[in-house]
Every structure is written in structure tokens, then in C-alpha cells.
């Protein structure tokens, strides 16, 4: 089973890189079981870019699972789902599928931050409680997973290890060590958000892949 994964397209910012990457993938698409899209599809509210992203994704012609990033604003989630109708978005949700007789569970979420950003504190009422509740919910969902292979897809990294290379001042506003104990409940983690972070880290022996496009 082969999985393609990407995050942080930030269309139109990295759309050309994304397009070139998809061209390299196309010859092998028959071998790809599904594509994971780990958030920040558009940049800073440029939702007009979603139509172009959809056209590119249609060429891949494989099942696509996604989660929202911080640039897919919560009040625009329905718009994103409408424009990217070829993507199954998982918002603190479990998706169960079968790949050639192998049961695969994918859990998708924005994830949480150890420290909310200044913007979040100002604009998202109760953000600390939202994060606390999300942590508990993700653990409950993980305990429900019965698949042969379990994959966690988060926009915000569930470990600060993957953030090496980012500005040390802001690490707690980019990811969360509070989710490290969730990682061992899965076989692999797909994450993004860390444009300058590490492409790979291990948490309790579980591989964490940073698929941020930049």
C-alpha cells in the first residue's frame, strides 16, 4: 500500500510547486491507494483558489482525504468542502476504508497548539477549552480504531520534535507536545504546518512525517 501526502499548498503561493509535484506522481497513481491533504490548502482566505486546486486534484483520480488547517477558517469550512467536493474532509473524525483486504483507519483533525497564537486568543473565544476538548476527543476516537493500519493526519504537529529549524520562540504556537501520548495509538502520523521543520521524526517509535510542501 502506497500513500501520497501533502500539506501547506497555500494556493496561490506554492501552487506551481504543487502542480509540478502532481505531474511526478501521475505516472504512479495506479499504485497509490489514497492521497492525504493535511491542511492549509489556500493562503490567507484566498478561497477563490480552491477551484484551481480541485482541477489539479481531479487529475490524480485517487481517493483524497483531508483535514483543515489554520488557513481554512472555521466559518469557511462548508465553503471549502463545497469547492473541494473531491476531498473527504475529516474534522476530528475517523474514516474507515479497505485497501486490498487491509482495513485502514484514518483519523483527521486540525490538531492543537501548546500555546494559542495571539490571533487565536483575540478572535477565537474559549480556544484553550477547544484544544483541551479536542485532545480528549482524539484519544476517544483513537481508542475506537480497529483497523489493521491506523493513520493520524493532523495539520498542527503532535510533537515539537518535528519543528527543529523553526524559530524557537514560536514552537509552542506551532505544535503540541500534549499530543505525543496520542501518537503510539497509531502506526504513522502525517502532519504539516512546519514549513522549515524536519521532514521526519519518531515519537515512541512511531514515524511522524512532515509533508509541508515548502
Number of helices: 5
Element order, helices and strands? EHEHEHEEEHHEEEE
Q: Percent range for helical residues?
A: 10-25%
How would the global form be characterised? Answer: globular
Spans with pLDDT under 50 lasting ≥5 residues? Answer: none
Please state how the strands of the largest beta sheet are arranged side by side: 5-6-7-8-10-9
Strand content: 15-25%
Which SSEs are present, and which pair or pack?
Elements: E1 2-6, H1 15-25, E2 32-38, H2 50-60, E3 64-67, H3 77-83, E4 88-89, E5 93-99, E6 102-109, H4 118-123, H5 127-144, E7 149-154, E8 188-191, E9 200-203, E10 206-210
Give your account of this protein's structure:
The chain has 214 residues and is α/β, with parallel strands linked by helices. The chain contains five helices and ten strands. Helix 2 links the parallel strand 2 and strand 3. Helix 1 (15-25) packs parallel to helix 2 (50-60).
Could you give a short description of this structure?
By secondary structure, this protein is of the alpha/beta class. The protein contains 5 helices and 10 strands, in the order E-H-E-H-E-H-E-E-E-H-H-E-E-E-E.
Keywords:
alpha/beta; 214 residues; 24% strand; 25% helix; six-stranded mixed β-sheet; 5 helices
Amino acid at each position: 500500500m502506497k500513500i501520497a501526502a501533502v500539506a501547506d499548498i497555500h494556493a496561490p503561493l506554492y501552487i506551481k510547486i504543487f502542480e509540478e509535484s502532481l505531474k511526478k506522481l501521475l505516472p504512479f497513481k495506479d499504485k497509490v491507494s489514497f492521497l492525504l491533504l493535511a491542511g492549509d490548502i489556500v493562503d490567507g482566505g484566498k478561497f477563490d483558489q480552491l477551484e484551481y486546486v480541485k482541477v489539479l486534484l481531479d487529475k490524480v483520480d485517487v481517493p483524497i482525504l483531508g483535514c483543515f488547517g489554520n488557513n481554512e477558517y472555521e466559518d469557511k469550512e462548508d465553503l471549502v468542502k463545497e469547492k473541494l467536493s473531491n476531498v473527504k474532509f475529516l474534522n476530528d473524525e475517523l474514516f474507515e476504508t479497505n485497501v486490498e483486504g487491509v482495513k485502514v483507519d484514518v483519523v483527521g483533525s486540525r490538531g492543537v497548539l501548546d500555546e494559542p497564537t495571539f490571533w487565536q486568543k483575540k478572535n477565537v473565544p474559549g480556544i484553550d477549552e477547544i484544544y483541551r476538548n479536542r485532545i480528549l476527543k482524539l484519544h476517544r476516537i483513537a481508542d475506537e480504531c480497529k483497523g489493521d493500519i491506523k493513520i493520524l493526519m493532523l495539520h498542527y504537529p503532535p510533537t515539537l520534535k518535528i519543528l527543529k529549524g523553526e524559530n524557537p520562540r514560536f514552537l509552542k504556537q506551532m505544535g503540541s507536545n500534549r499530543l505525543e501520548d496520542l501518537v503510539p495509538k497509531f502506526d504513522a502520523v502525517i502532519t504539516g504546518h512546519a514549513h522549515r521543520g524536519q521532514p521526519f521524526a519518531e515519537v515512541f517509535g512511531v514515524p511522524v512525517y512532515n509533508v509541508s510542501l515548502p
